[in-house]
From TrEMBL:
Protein name: DNA polymerase V subunit UmuC
The UmuC domain, residue ranges: 1-93
Lineage, top ranks: Bacteria, Pseudomonadati, Pseudomonadota, Gammaproteobacteria, Moraxellales
Family, per entry: Belongs to the DNA polymerase type-Y family.
Length: 117
């Protein structure tokens, strides 16, 4: 269990045989038809990346509610990561965000470019 209004689903076993973006769109449509609830879906290689993808899907109508970071062009991914404040990253929180920002890590892109030894 995680939250009443969020869930994580591991589709990694189906990634090679199915178009996960289409599966996500189908899920959105069924949830809307059955429950009348609007849903956005973020596809990523981790829960954190999936939440970032979901954030992108919510903020950008061009994604039609589904953002697939796994198959996104790296240049596009960098563009969107540069638009998201590091404080939006799941688990960072205000205290950690301030510390990261003091080290000039202000965006998701900045955070993604860090190389930890």
């Amino acid at each position: 269990k995680y939250s009443i209004d969020e869930c994580f689903v591991d589709f990694s076993a189906y990634e090679k045989n199915f178009d996960l973006e289409k599966v996500a769109q189908d899920m959105r449509l069924k949830i809307w038809k059955w429950l009348g609830l609007p849903v956005c879906v973020g596809i990523g290689r981790s829960k954190t990346e999936s939440k970032i993808a979901n954030h992108i899907a919510k903020k950008n109508q061009s994604f039609n509610g589904v953002c697939d970071l796994v198959n996104m062009d790296p240049c596009n991914k960098e563009y969107f990561f540069a638009q998201i404040d590091v404080s939006e990253v799941w688990g960072v929180g205000r205290k950690h965000a301030k510390k990261l920002q003091s080290m000039e890590i202000n965006t998701v892109l900045d955070l993604s470019l860090i190389h930890i030894l």
